[in-house]
């Protein structure tokens, strides 16, 4: 089965560490899509994946914001405001999903797809050239922590 969101160069920011984290967010939304289309026990699995999506989003945004502070990114306030909005949106949705007030529908999946891809393609693309100029490495050779502690619970 093809992915709900395909990774492509259009989404890449050209910095492997951050791309790997973005890929993990994309993978979580793809998992959610798969769970809704072919999984058993859909509601329970959806809740689990949504929780993980929130946790990882919080961590990923914190990593980006740390980098911005370390390198004194001039658009820090603006970017953090975007993060704050995105966090609030998805937390609100998750609260409703966890309580059963809201189901994971195709509409919600498309919202999440736009939620992540728009942010990466618009806001995140802006910081990449800045960080690279500051000496942040395009790629690393070490094993990353990304994905290691995040296994979708099974
Ligand atoms: Fe960001």
From TrEMBL:
Any single Pfam family the record assigns to this protein: Hemerythrin
SUPFAM superfamilies the record matches: Hemerythrin-like
Molecular-function GO term, any one: oxygen carrier activity
Domain Hemerythrin-like: 14-131
Gene3D superfamilies referenced in this protein's UniProt entry, alphabetically: Hemerythrin-like
Cross-referenced InterPro entries: Haemerythrin_Fe_BS (IPR016131), Hemerythrin (IPR050669), Hemerythrin-like (IPR012312), Hemerythrin-like_sf (IPR035938), Hemerythrin_metal-bd (IPR012827)
Keywords, alphabetical: Iron, Metal-binding, Oxygen transport, Transport
Protein family: Belongs to the hemerythrin family.
PANTHER family to which the protein is assigned, alphabetical: BACTERIOHEMERYTHRIN (PTHR37164:SF1)
Protein name, entry field: Hemerythrin-like metal-binding domain protein
């Amino acid at each position: 089965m093809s992915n709900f969101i395909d990774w492509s160069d259009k989404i890449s920011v050209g910095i492997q560490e951050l791309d790997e984290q973005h890929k993990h967010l994309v993978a979580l939304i793809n998992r959610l899509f798969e769970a809704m289309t072919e999984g058993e026990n859909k509601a329970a699995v959806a809740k689990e994946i949504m929780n993980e999506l929130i946790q990882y989003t919080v961590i990923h945004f914190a990593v980006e914001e740390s980098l911005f502070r370390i390198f004194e990114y001039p658009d820090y306030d603006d970017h953090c405001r975007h993060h704050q909005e995105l966090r609030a949106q998805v937390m609100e949705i998750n609260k409703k999903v966890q309580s059963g007030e809201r189901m994971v529908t195709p509409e919600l999946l498309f919202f999440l797809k736009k939620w992540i891809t728009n942010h990466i393609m618009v806001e995140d693309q802006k910081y990449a050239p800045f960080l690279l100029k500051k000496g942040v490495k395009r790629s690393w050779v070490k094993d990353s922590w990304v994905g290691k502690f995040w296994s979708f619970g099974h």
